[in-house]
Amino acid sequence: MIEVGIMIEGQDGLNWPRWQRLARAVEDLGFVGLWRSDHYTNANPPDKDSLELWVSLTWLASHTTRIQFGQLVSPAGFRHPTMLARMAAAVADLSGGRLTLGLGAGWQVREHTNYGLDLLEIGPRFDRFEEYVAVVTRLLRSDTPVTFEGYYYRLHDAIVLPRPQRPGGPPVLIGGNGMRRTLSIVAKYADAWNGVFLTPEAFAQRNTRLDALLEAEGRKPADVHRSLMTGVLFGRDDAEVAAKLAPRGRTLDEYCAAGGVGGTANAIVEQLGHLAEAGVQRVMLQWIDMDDIDGLAALAAGVLVPNRPSSCTTGKKTGCEKPFWFRLVRVRAAMKTNGRGAPIRVFVQNSWLSPRDHVHHAYVRVIRHRRRVVGIVAHHRTVDDDDDVREGVAHRRQHVAHGHLGVPGEGVMFVDSNH
Fold first, then answer.
1. In angstroms, rounded to a whole number, what is the distance separating the alpha carbons of residues 222 and 61?
2. What phi-psi label fits residue 70: left (phi over 0), alpha (psi between -120 and 50 degrees) or beta?
3. pLDDT, tens digit, for every residue of 19-38?
4. Domains of the chain
5. d(C-alpha 77, C-alpha 246), whole Å
6. What is the reported pLDDT for 1?
7. Alpha helices, H only, 236-292
């Protein structure tokens, strides 16, 4: 099952109120995580608010409890690798191990020129980047002092203390689409690779190439997590989709052909399925309008907890059954809630459980955050087909359900029937 997170452009007007509001929304709505870019400014003027990356991630580490987070990605020319390794280890520990450290060679000419940073030509840039990644990973993974003699960086008995709580430090992600240099560096050093604005076909091509490079390095394909950062154009209905497309001067098909995902919730769910088939394990959707929290909530309600696809039939093994034991259940409240966290009686509709399970009744407890219903905890009973219901043979299970009740009395919840 593909994981869905949110990515925002930190140089495009990010300030403390927006960052704090976004972080709370992403955590409450059930997205797997929140990622941001690491830039001083945009490639073209005007300059906008651009909250510094590591200050913002430090706040996020201590003010959220569930979501994964990190940068997509930090250019090698911004910070010395020894300082970056120290900051990453500290923030990862502060968060309880939720940081992924994203690294890249750098690409934006304007910010490097404006702030006196060396971008370098393509060849030397990637030579420096490989040294950069080697230094960072050795410092994070070595419990003994590190000595390194390179062209760009030299270390003598360097060590990160305190040692990271997670053995090896935070996972190191390398971002980029390059088939030659980027993927080669991923295969040598990285825990994760992130592609950018790729169609399923283009992602699958690079995925296959990465598998071959990993094998040449004596590593397994499963050693490297695969993700994609891409644009999302979401509308609650076709009219909203059309309104968002109009200023872009392109059709929805053209937008998707350029690597984005777009449309209403059902269309996006289908496109995410194609990405999953291409090998994407996690997608970070680029949310441009940082003030549109209502739109983000609508996206979560439609995409994180989609209706059961019509092609999924009980007892038949289809692509919808991966992983097999995670199911969705639509619930309709039969009684109104009575205060914070009050239990409500529900009828279960469109059950998607094991082929042998049928839900007979369920109760849910509403979880609220700042007056918004953000999830439910479900208690339900199932009876197997082969059991005699009259003899009372049943199983009671309790599941934490992360969902969003989009309208009063209705919603969708996640259920793990293997709990």
1. 27
2. left
3. 999 999 999 999 999 999 99
4. 3-304 (3.20.20.30), 319-416 (no CATH)
5. 38
6. 77
7. 238-245, 252-257, 265-277
